[in-house]
Amino acid sequence: MSEAKWHYSVNGQSFGPVSKEDIAGKLRAGQIKPTDHVWCQGMGEWAQVSSVAEFAGAAPAAAPASGPPQAPSARTSHEIDYEILGDDMQVVEVELDPGEVIIAEAGAMNYMDDGIQFEARFGDGTKPDQGFWGKVVDGAKRKLTGESLFLTHFTNGGGGKKRVAFAAPYPGKIIALDLSSLGGEILCQKDAFLCAAMGTEVGIAFSKRLGTGLFGGEGFILQRLRGDGLAFVHAGGTVVQRQLTGEKLLVDTGCLVAFTTGVAYDIQRAGNLKSMIFGGEGLFLATLQGTGTVWLQTLPFSRLADRILAVAGRGGKTAKGEGSILGGISTIFED
Fold it and tell me: Is 125 in the same domain as 170?
């Protein structure tokens, strides 16, 4: 029996870890379709079962159709190619075919080929018939998440393939999310969105629970990404991806990056009163429970900024004896 390290996704719900034989058996029994998706450690992203060599031949042969084959459902988002470059200061380089468009946060562009046209617009382009005031309202909602009023649309207006790159605003990782394999929707922290294929709806979601809104670290508002194409979000430090199958995960409120809609988000008190005051972990923890995928970050930007401000408040006397008790005592006698 092979090691249980595979995960599979059916109708937007993720399951695992299971063994390769478990997936092959479910495939033969029809419980998993060749068009469903699987993932294991080492794969860059989820892939269709039919495209994974380990499961070749496991699916039963399809019965001959009595009529013409059914046309595949049309993808609403542009199909873009990409490459993520770098380690701790990453950039995502997107390749656009002629006429393809990618939308991005204002100021996120790093470099682009000649022939790429860009324009700042209200909205993400998913509502072409929306009136002016509707676009203004959507822009105001984006402002509530701390983002700009506008999104920048980058279009390959020339011949041949063109590339445009987007960089994260602080050290960390860029995560590529295929929304079509994640149920068509994810929720993420309010400043996580970087860019996405044209056809992705970038909106907001209000937290339903008062406690979550007041103490959840992200307020009442999360970003909602909907569509069937690629979207890119960024996070601080190292990114940890967890698959939940009903269990509960407790997380520092600032360390949550994104989660799928099958996961319920709430907050709870961090231990007893002494732990809340002296534990150093904050007053509350986020709770994530359900079936789906969760992405976590090890270094929230707010934590990094707090450290920088604390050091800056010492008047620049940081290099001498940092981490040393003697170094700390010596500064008492300095002017």
Answer: yes
